[in-house]
Amino acid sequence: MKIAVTTDHGGYEALQQLKPYLESLGHEVVDFGPKSLDMDDDYPDLIFPAARAVAAGECDRGIIMGVSGNGEAIAANRVKGVRCALFYGPVTAKSQAGADPASGDPYEIVKLSREHNDANMLSLSGRFLTLDEMKQAVKIWLETPFSGAERHARRVRKLDEPS
Predict the structure, then answer these.
(1) CATH number belonging to domain 2-160
(2) Is 116 a catalytic residue?
(3) Which residue among 74, 76, 128, 149 has its CA within the 20 to 30 Å range from the CA of 117?
(4) Is 108 in the active site?
């Protein structure tokens, strides 16, 4: 799989370690920068080129990072055709519709972003995640297919329609 990656200063160090991990899983990494740590960079300048590459089909998926990952996900989702999920830490589902509290899977939300939303980008928090948590989330996200269930496909189509 061809994976676009980028970050602002908030995830720079972690992304330098995550890139070889992605390659070790057999993926091709397309690095959209930055080339060096710049504490004054602006995440939209870095996120938009990677998001456009995913939306255009030049890259199959994208992994982006920042301090919280929130602004980065917002920026990516401004690009038509991008469905960027945010993961800033392991959580366990509570009793609610569709959740299995007995599973205790702290990465279930990552799986659901692929199974239900066909997320093609994943935004990670450089501040709230350890490198091991990032690796676990990324591996799960990359290995989880879109369910293709009609109700989920219908909703994804609606996301990609012009408003």
Answers:
(1) 3.40.1400.10
(2) yes
(3) 128
(4) no
